[in-house]
Amino acid sequence: MMQPYVLLISLLLMLVVAAIFWWVVRHSAANARLRPSGQVEGYRSGLFWGLVVVGIVVAVATLRPWPYDVGAADDAVTVMATGSQWSWEIVPSEVPVGRPIVFKVTSSDVNHGFGVYDSEDTMLFQTQAMPGYVNQVRHTFTDAGKYRVLCMEYCGLVHHDMISDIEVK
Length: 169
Ligand code: CUA
Prior knowledge:
Elements: H1 3-29, H2 38-63, E1 77-84, E2 87-91, E3 94-95, E4 100-107, E5 112-117, E6 123-129, E7 135-140, E8 145-151, E9 163-168
Parallel strand pairs: 1-4, 3-9
Antiparallel strand pairs: 1-2, 4-7, 5-6, 5-8, 8-9
The structure holds dinuclear copper ion (CUA).
């Protein structure tokens, strides 16, 4: 799982940027000539904190429905999906409607692409199936029915026929 490291590195870099900003602000504040009048300063700091609040609200609102969020333990159903030239082994291939499903996707030979389509052939989600790795995708099916699994990456002669089904009940 790379995500905790990526998060940690991002936070560290943000801290560095914040420290630079703090240093610049501290040193420029010492220069009294550059300071604006009290009224302008009040307006400016109001605008600044207003933007900070808007930024936080927008970030939280847009990051929450992150499609690959596989963190929290809950009542999710786990499905193992293994690609091989040229078929999918999906266990179980029947899943409940309305419950989060965590697909753990891997390959027994070469790279494949695990793509799931609804009855109108619209792709719902996809991830790579790689030998030696298990990629996770989380999805909640809101409608019952038959969903098609297609291979999304050219993997040899019969790639086009690497099709399977998931039954949602
Ligand atoms: Cu498997 Cu293309």
